[in-house]
Amino acid sequence: MRLTNLDMDVLRTLATAIELGGFARAAARLGRSQSAVSLQMRKLEEQLGVALLRKQGRGLALTEAGDVVLGYARRILALNDEAVAAVGGLDLAGTVRLGLPQDFAEAWLPAALGRFARAHPQVRIEARVDRNGVLLEDLAGGRLDLALAWGEEHGPGAEVLARLPIRWIGRADLVFAEDAPLPLIAFQPPCAFRAAAIAALDRAGRPWRLSFTSPSLAGLWAAAEAGLGVTMRTRIGLPASLAPLDRLPPLPEIALTLHQAPGHAPAIERLRQILVQTLADGLGTPQSVSVMPSRATSVPGRRSAAAAPTASS
């Protein structure tokens, strides 16, 4: 059986087009014409013998086969980029201090840091997992180099990476009376998730009460698992015992922003690149999350209703 060698350049075009939401943006990112990008996609489909893209409204969407190919393409490209970075970055050294929200501590942080450590073994990473307010204070105070935080912040070194829908979360079998105050599980203020939930309930005229507060996300999950009420979060890090609840007033999106302290040390910049790529790979399809273009080609995005306050979530 003759094996087929997929063109890595074409796979990168496919991954970039899906990440940016269209061939035109991918062409601009990759320095090609839109017709050249379209031709690459046709050649890839001919090589594989299946359709990878289908029409959806005025745009294009992945077929089932396209979704499979995209998953492999991202893995192939990640290994390629990791190998190139490992060879080219052997001389990187020093320390990078990173702060992240609690949502990313278990499922997402190990993948990003492991990828960086394999490529740059001489760089020491100091990671802090905490609430937004603490992370941004440490960044401003020079105690962190990078901080991933909830909320759309503007200013030097701030880059919105994605906007994710906030969801009501609780036990799937949770029952609450329509005329009784809704029991809320939340962080103490300031918290963008809490503010968005209360605003949505007030607009809908739905009474509510605080049933449980905690300084940690693990505490919120534990209270929700115990059936003490509902909490509000994105689906990132959602425990298997909990589920999004759809029978409550709709909630807005919240921005996920990467903050970088002044200065452009090579190790810091490389970790920023890996964080951005790992996030894009981990969040999945654009139907459930809006992934923003990276810094090189970013365009102004609309502000999220829930992102206006300074989040301490």
CATH fold description of the largest domain = D-Maltodextrin-Binding Protein, domain 2
Mean pLDDT: 82
* SSE series: HHHEEHEHEHEEEEHEHEEEHE
Radius of gyration over C-alpha positions, nearest whole angstrom = 21 Å
Low-confidence stretches: 285-310
CATH superfamily of the largest domain: Periplasmic binding protein-like II
Alpha carbon gap, first and last residue: 55 Å
CATH architecture of the largest domain: 3-Layer(aba) Sandwich
Give the percentage of residues in beta strands: 15-25%
| Assembly state (oligomeric) | single chain
Overall number of structural domains: 3
Strand count, sense and barrel status of the largest sheet are:
6 strands, mixed
Helix % is 25-40%
Strands side by side in the biggest sheet: 4-3-5-12-6-13
Shape: globular
* CATH classification, class level of the largest domain: Alpha Beta
Q: Classify the secondary structure makeup into a structural class.
A: alpha/beta
How large is the count of helical segments?
Answer: 9
Number of strands: 13
Descriptive key words:
9 helices; alpha/beta; 313 residues; Arc Repressor Mutant, subunit A; globular; D-Maltodextrin-Binding Protein, domain 2; single chain; six-stranded mixed sheet
